[in-house]
Amino acid sequence: MRHLGNTVLELAGCRVHTVFASIFCYTFCSAVAIVVNKVVISQTPAPACIFCLQMAATLVFILLAWAGNAIKIDVPSMHNLLTFIPYIASFVISLYSNGRALRSSNVETVIVFRSCSPLCVSVLDWLFLGRELPSLPSLLA
User: Fold this and answer.
1) If you average pLDDT over every residue of the chain, what do you get?
2) Are 16 and 8 in contact (CB under 8 A)?
3) Burial 101-112 (b: 16+ CB within 10 A, else e)
4) For a pLDDT cut of 90, what percent of the chain falls above it?
5) 50 confidence band (pLDDT: 50, 70, 90)
6) In the predicted model, what is the mean pLDDT of residues 19-34?
7) Could you give the angle at which helices 107-115 and 16-43 cross, rounded to 10 degrees?
8) CB environment 46-84: b (16+ within 10 A), e (fewer)
9) Measured between alpha carbons, how far is 111 from 106 in angstroms, rounded to an integer?
10) Residue 7 — pLDDT band, cuts 50, 70, 90?
11) How far apart are CA 128 and CA 124, in angstroms?
12) How many CA atoms lie within 13 A of 102 on its CB side?
């Protein structure tokens, strides 16, 4: 860690070790989730039910955290719900296609294609929003 005077360099208000611990936990959970999903989807005749159960469990977890005052949930307005319908639809489509990809290919292939998503997003950002393309070092990372 670099020190600036008497303060420790912080990333977005968090200590560096907290950021690395968060990255490790996220990576570990993501890796375990994709392997478990692959196994369950391969053994289940209706893989869409698995994703519905996972989303229901997530909703229950969020509601329990809200009930315990651990998080704050804003009450959505009808305008916000209608605004987010395209995002909700694209999320459901991505879950479905991810499940189909997991069912018909191996985990490594799905991980490679998931890793390419930021590249596709950056090209679409450049194409439709006029943003810069990633630099060569960013592209190779």
Assistant:
1) 84
2) yes
3) bbeeeeeeebee
4) 23
5) confident
6) 89
7) 130
8) ebeebbeeeeeeeeeeeeeeeeeeeeeeeeeeeeeeeee
9) 9
10) very low
11) 6
12) 24
- Which one-letter amino acid corresponds to residue 36? V
Return the pLDDT at 62. Answer: 92
- DSSP string covering 44-87: -S-HHHHHHHHHHHHHHHHHHHHHTTSS--PPPPHHHHHHHHHH
Question: CA–CA distance from 46 to each of 103, 119, 134 (Å)?
Answer: 11, 32, 40
What is the average pLDDT across 82-86? 92
SS3 106: coil
Q: Which of 115, 133, 116 is nearest to 124 (CA)?
A: 133
How many CA atoms lie within 13 Å of 71's alpha carbon, on the beta-carbon side?
10
51, two tokens: 């994703």
Residue 98 has which token pair?
A: 């991810």
Amino acid at 111: I
- Rounded to whole angstroms, the Cα distance separating 46 from 43 reads 9
